[in-house]
Amino acid sequence: MKANPSSRPVAIWLLAGVFMIIVQVLLGGITRLTGSGLSITEWKPILGALPPMNEHDWQVAFEKYKEIGQFKFLNADFTLSDFKSIYFWEWLHRNWARFIAVVFAVPFVIFLLQRRFKKEMVRPMAILFILGALQGLIGWIMVASGLNEENLYVNHIRLAIHFISALGLLCYVFWFALQLLVPPEQVTINPSLQKFTWQIVAVLILQLIYGAFMAGHKAAPISPTWPDMNGYAFPPNLFKETPWLANFTENKLMVQFIHRGLAYLLFILIVMWTWKAYKQNLTSLFNKTKWMPLGIVLLQVVLGILTVLNSPFMAPRHWGVFEWYAQLHQLAAMFLLMSLIWMLYLVRRNKKAA
Questions:
Q1: What are phi and psi of 250, to 5 degrees?
Q2: What is the rounded distance in angstroms from the CA atom of residue 267 to the CA atom of residue 265?
């Protein structure tokens, strides 16, 4: 696809979608950090857009929340006012998703009638809508994992799936926008650099999965020190769980150990990538932006360290310095991923999609 003036409104529409997905992921982070994710115990894609409209409806919703383990074992002291405060964030998170659907659907119909879409764009657009709907379903499956008397939070593996699928949708929309905005002459052919970039993306995806495990397990306070982990380079009890493989998903200490290790590996790889990129003189757009992955990963490392160091200040129903660092850490992670997708677009095996 080639960039042209008639495609610019479509590209702007897609970039608006990128922004809205970033906001949606951040709202998901706020929902998790405030313990709001299980406050709405029903999935009503259409009727759920409206919150309870009177005291009776609020009380009914509160009574349903009282039936799950999170209320019984963590929030038994909740008043209706407390419940309303956590309900708000989950309601906003879900309604922002509905808003995204409207923002995608309405312009899509308009652009279709205006014949702004090329033939080859229709199928990716259909895939985009399917991915968006699937993301909503994954979100509900995640929430449902905590709507019982046994679990106090949503399942961390389902949280990771929900998070990674949201980032996949973000990258898909961003790539589509780049196809319409970046001039073909700014795309270069460099298989070696492209392969290296894909390898870094693979490590980053694994790192993001373990970031979701960290969030789901609330694992930051298990070792709130740096550069050591509670005084150790290799802390004991990394393999305390049985069976042995369970340590890699269920052991909080191991989850943080792997998350840190992947961060160090990612930093080293991006330093190497930057050194390799600066040795080559490619397109002007690539040359002007090849600093971005290194700059963002430096910020990401600092925010990760500050998040861990401030994790002892994490408290239920309290928004403080830890929560701010955790949110900024998540935002930087999205920017890092997008910077690598940007580089992948500019450094390609061929220019067919440009």
A1: -110, -25
A2: 5
Q: Where are the domains of the chain?
A: 1-181, 185-354
Closest CA to 127 of 102, 161, 104, 97: 104
The dihedral of CA 309, 156, 172, 30: what is its sign? negative
What are the structure tokens assigned to 166, written together? 């949201």
Rg value, the chain, Cα: 22
DSSP readout, 248-308? HHH-HHHHHHHHHHHHHHHHHHHHHHHHHHHT----HHHHHHTTHHHHHHHHHHHHHHHHH
The alpha carbon of residue 200 and the mean position of all alpha carbons in its chain are separated, in whole angstroms, by 17
Tell me the one-letter amino acid at 89. Answer: W
Helix axes 292-309, 252-278, angle to 10 degrees: 160
Residue 115 CA neighbour count, 13 Å, CB half: 0
Q: Which amino acid does the sequence have at 23?
A: V
Distance CA 348, CA 354 (A): 9
Where does residue 237 fall: left (phi above 0), alpha (psi -120 to 50 degrees), or beta otherwise?
left
Element (H, E) at 348: strand 347-348
pLDDT tens per residue across span 81-96: 999 999 999 999 999 9
Query: pTM of whole model > 0.90?
Result: yes
As a dihedral over the C-alpha atoms of residue 306, residue 309, residue 310, residue 313, rounded to 10 degrees, the angle is 170
List, for residues 103-125, the tens digit of each pLDDT value.
Answer: 988 988 888 888 777 777 777 77
**Strand partners for 189:** 348
Rounded Cα–Cα distance for residues 66 and 39 (Å): 9
* 3 state DSSP class of 232: strand
Cβ atoms 155, 149 nearer than 8 A = no
Residue 252 burial (10 A CB sphere; 0-12, 13-18, 19+): buried
Cβ–Cβ < 8 Å for 68, 148: yes
Residue 141 corresponds to which amino acid? I
Q: For 286-340, write each residue's pLDDT tens digit.
A: 999 999 999 999 999 999 999 999 999 987 777 899 999 999 999 999 999 999 9
